[in-house]
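note to self: dont lose this again. the chain is below, predicted strucutre after it. 301 aa total, dont forget to put it in the shared folder this time
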Amino acid sequence: MATDVQTKNITDLLASFPEDQRHRVADRWRVHQQREALIQRPSFWKRLWLFLTLIGPGILVMIADNDAGGVITYAQTGAAYGIGFFIPFLILMVPVAYVVQEMTVRLGAVTHRGHAEMIWGRYGPFWGAFSLFDLVVANILTLVTEFIGITIGMKMFGVPAVWSALGGFLIVAGVLLFLRYHTWERVALWIAVGNLIFVPLAIASHPHWGQVVTALGSWHIPAGVAVSGFVYVILANLGTTIAPWMLFFQQSSVVDKGLTEKDIAIGQADTAIGTILMGLVAIALVALTGSWVYGLSGAGN
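---
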């Protein structure tokens, strides 16, 4: 009888919550049940199922970092400066990106608070509002590059820019308005898999792998480059690899999925997988354009 009363009280309490909070509680409860089932009767398949349930934010945030702006940046980098400097540079950026994003896994799993909420609570309203304003501005500029990529890509199929931009907007708005986090995360992961197409494309184009190996052993700045333009490209690659939205997104996603301190290792593995995939795509693009476009007339434009 007491259990029935408790269940009814919990049900009534959940009914008073907003819909998005009810979905969040349901997602966390599902993770809790999987974790309890694993504790009671450990097995490889239960452990694998929990792992597949909890992964997602790290892979998604890293692969999504190779968006339209990122792809254009890497392609232009290889075309303008070759592979002598930027292949080793991107390899070094892979562990840097992992360290930065892995921090959000631990923060979210231990505190159960999003990145913005932590800034607001620790540093006060001014810096909290400043961080959100900065995030909004950066995200708007990022979205501009995304829609530029959409219109350019669809133009290859003869779709006018206005219709491709409108279609992209409706899809994004529909996902945000009508899909809960668990659903759109899985949909986004399948879409993000398409980003890996650059790796087999780079291999199929037979780039000069000998030059890639040589670049790893003799890291150097190309001769005769303009310092201002070269520094600008370095900053562009840094900004593509590590962006503010990645910190906010992954930590909030870790909290939404219900990761705890016991799940930090899974979150770290999730982030590591995503980081490696991101690095492979970036290196493939630079190797592709650095081998076949670098040195041609007008390649830097």
